[in-house]
Amino acid sequence: MNRNDIRIGLFGFGVVGQGLHTVLERTPGLRARIGRIGVKDRSKTRSLPPELFTFERDEVLDDPALNVIVELIDDADEAYRIVTGALRRGKAVVTTNKKMLAEHLQELIELQRQTGTPLLYEAAACASLPVIRNLEEYYDTDLLDAVEGIINGSTNYILTAMHRDAVTFAAALARAQELGFAESNPALDVEGLDARNKLVLLLAHALGLVARPEDILTVGITGISELASSYAREKGLVIKLVAEARRLPDGGVAAAVLPTLLRPEHELARVHDEYNGLITQSLFTDRQFFLGRGAGAVPTASAVLSDLSALTYGYRYEYKKLQQQSARALAPAAAEVDVLVTFGQGHAPERADFSRIHEYFHSEQQGYYLTGTIGLARLAAAAWLRQPGISVVRLPQPLRAAQAAPVASAAEVEAADCPA
Ligand SMILES: NC(=O)c1ccc[n+]([C@@H]2O[C@H](COP(=O)([O-])OP(=O)(O)OC[C@H]3O[C@@H](n4cnc5c(N)ncnc54)[C@H](OP(=O)(O)O)[C@@H]3O)[C@@H](O)[C@H]2O)c1
C-alpha cells in the first residue's frame, strides 16, 4: 500500500470512526481518504454525504477501489465477520475491537499466516499508548517478566471521579459515556471484561501466550465496598483497576484483573481520569512506564492512524514472543495473591481457602474485613467471590509464585472471631 494512496473502507462512524475522520483531515503526511463507510442505523443523520454510507457489509469488502479495511464498530460478532472477510479477500485490516480480538486471537493469528494479510490493532490495547508495536519490536529480544497496568480508561475515569471528586458511581459512569470513553455495553468496562480482553492481547505480545479471556481471573469495580474504600483512605492507599500478568519462575504465567490497593508512590497510583498506564518489567531494562490517554475519539483514532501508516511500509505483527514460546501457559494454581476481603454478617469468605490470614477486623458500623494470602486458582473458583456483600481488593503486593502454606496458619487466626 502506497503512502500517497490509502483508500479506506471504514466500518463504524461513532466515537472512534468520527475521530478517525477528524485525525485524517489534520494529517498532512499521509494521503488517506475514506472511500466508503459501513454503518447500521438507517435513521441516523450523518455529518458526511449520504452516498458515502452503506448498510451492506459486502459493498465495502468487495469494493476493488478500497485497499484497506478499518473496523471501528461496537458489535464484536459483526466485527469478526468483517475482519475475517477482509483478511480472506487479501485486504489489510486495522481494528480497535479488543473483545473480538481476545475471543478469536489464535484463529486470527492463523488467518494472517494463511492469507499473508496483515491485521493491526494498536488502539485495541490502551488506545493512544504505543504498546503493542513496542512489545513486538523494541522488546523482541528482551524477555519480559511482567506487564502491569491500568488499561481501561472508563473505570479509571470513574474511580478518579468517585475518589478525588466525590462523584457517585452512576454519575461518573454517565459522564464517561457522554465523553465517549465508555463501551456501549458498560458492563464490559465496570466488570473488568474490557481490561481482561486487552490483557489477552498484552499476554500474546509481551509474554508469548495466547490465553482464553475466560481463563483470566477478573473482578470489576462495581463491588468495591465502602469499607474497602475507607480502608484505603486510612492507610493512604488508592484503589485502581489493575491488570497484571507475571511470569512465574517455572515458566507458567499468573494473570488477573483486580481492583488493587496501590501505595501513592506507585506509578499507577498517579494515573488519573481516562488515562492508561502500563509498566513493563524485564531482565535487561528493569521497569519502564507508558502513560497516555486510554480512551476518547481522537487519541484512539491517532493509534489507528499510526497503524495505517505502518501498513504503508509493509508492517505486520510477527508474534515474535509466540515464536520464542517464551511463556508456557496460564498457571493460576502455581500463583498466589494478597487480598483484602470485606463482608457483612451472613456473607463470609471461606477461611479454609486462604493459605494465610494476616489480619481480621470487625466494626459494628462498617462490617468485617480480613486480609490474607490465597491461591489465584482458589480465589477464581471461590463461590463467595461473586456473592453480593463480599468485596475483594488486591493488596499492594504483586502476583507471585505460591509459597508452601505455613502449617495451620489460617487456623491460627482465632476462628471464633471470624463469622462463619
Ligand atoms: N471509544 C473509545 O474510547 C474506544 C477506545 C478504544 C477502542 N474502542 C473500540 O472501538 C470500537 C468502536 O467504539 P466507539 O466508541 O466508536 O463506538 P460507538 O460510538 O458506539 O460507534 C459504534 C459504530 O459502530 C456501528 N455499528 C454497530 N453495529 C454495527 C453493525 N452490525 N454493522 C455496521 N456498523 C455497526 C454503529 O453504527 P451506527 O452509526 O449506524 O449506529 C456506530 O457507527 C469498539 O470496538 C470499542 O471497543 C473505543
TrEMBL record:
Keywords: Amino-acid biosynthesis, Methionine biosynthesis, NADP, Oxidoreductase, Threonine biosynthesis. One of its GO terms (molecular function) is homoserine dehydrogenase activity. Pathway: Amino-acid biosynthesis; L-methionine biosynthesis via de novo pathway; L-homoserine from L-aspartate: step 3/3; Amino-acid biosynthesis; L-threonine biosynthesis; L-threonine from L-aspartate: step 3/5. Its EC number is 1.1.1.3. Residues 130-308 form the Homoserine dehydrogenase catalytic domain. PANTHER family: HOMOSERINE DEHYDROGENASE. This is Homoserine dehydrogenase. Pfam families: Homoserine_dh, NAD_binding_3. It is an enzyme of class 1 (oxidoreductase). Belongs to the homoserine dehydrogenase family. It catalyses: L-homoserine + NADP(+) = L-aspartate 4-semialdehyde + NADPH + H(+). GO terms for biological process: methionine biosynthetic process; threonine biosynthetic process. Residues 12-122 form the Aspartate/homoserine dehydrogenase NAD-binding domain.
